# Entry
Amino acid sequence: MSTSASSSPQAGSRPGGRSARVRAAVHRAVQELVADETSEPLTIPVVAARAGVHATTVYRRWGTVGELLADVATSRFSGDIVVPDTGSLRGDLERYASSLAKDLGDPDTLALVRATLGSGGEQGAAACRGERRQQIEAILERERCRGGEPPTPEQTTDALIAPLYYRAVFTDEPLSPEWTRGLVSHLLGD
Amino acid sequence: MSTSASSSPQAGSRPGGRSARVRAAVHRAVQELVADETSEPLTIPVVAARAGVHATTVYRRWGTVGELLADVATSRFSGDIVVPDTGSLRGDLERYASSLAKDLGDPDTLALVRATLGSGGEQGAAACRGERRQQIEAILERERCRGGEPPTPEQTTDALIAPLYYRAVFTDEPLSPEWTRGLVSHLLGD
# Structure
């Protein structure tokens, strides 16, 4: 029996199985409820009812609303932006910033970010930050391979990622293409 | 009777009156509950119980948890930072950024920002942004009066306010004095 068990360690949670269907339904329910501003406060029974699953299933798997939101945000922001390769640092940063602006400019995404920050603590904040740091490092590393001398990841985060998140989350100003390109220009010292 | 009424239009809500005491107790309860990460989800009955007032009083005055959080955040961030006058733009911006870093670096303040973003929608976001824009404009205007040519409010927000908020809210990196001074240097083109 132990041989059989070790040959299928994922039994019960294989892709397409019941476990994956529950996860998909619960994630979808969270995204719908968060996007609907008029809805009641997000609780596990409310999510379970919308997803058509037992509340105990949701409690057992995620524990709290904060952990559930962090899980949904992690899925949402993992691999959401492909690191571009346009042939120049400026081109890569402009393409990347434009994708991030589009992402954060979506009202449903913004609602998910705010809700996750509100209930998910440090774990939720990390989920909303996603893979920005790794993506920026990949862009800067590619420039170094071209023989260029790019800014540091910290400078790039401060000058590009931070204004995009701040404007999206804290203000009602648009993340316009001109403004986004201006951030790249300022970072590159134009 | 109408003369008497118009001579005391604030009757029932004068400073130090019952209304002010209720407001102070409810605000304090919200701040304590938000700071206590282990507590149950924030609801109006939970806040009312902690504040020692009737839930109906809280519902009547604030309506929803989101509006209540936005009100607490507005109080917290109104006039929280005095616009400095050190004699130079660099000095003023460094002093201002240092005050904001200290403010946002406080765990209880951060918990209030995240909770308010989570429940307060656009109104909550505006409350957390506080008077940053006006404060920055006052600093830049003072420099113009000195005959200087300061950056624009938008550039200053992107280069100074945004990284401080992003680092505080989305990362676990410290808002160190060296890093904060570096933001000012980069903005001023050193």
In short: Chain A has two domains: 14-63, 76-187. The CA atoms of residues 39 and 62 of chain A lie 21 Å apart.
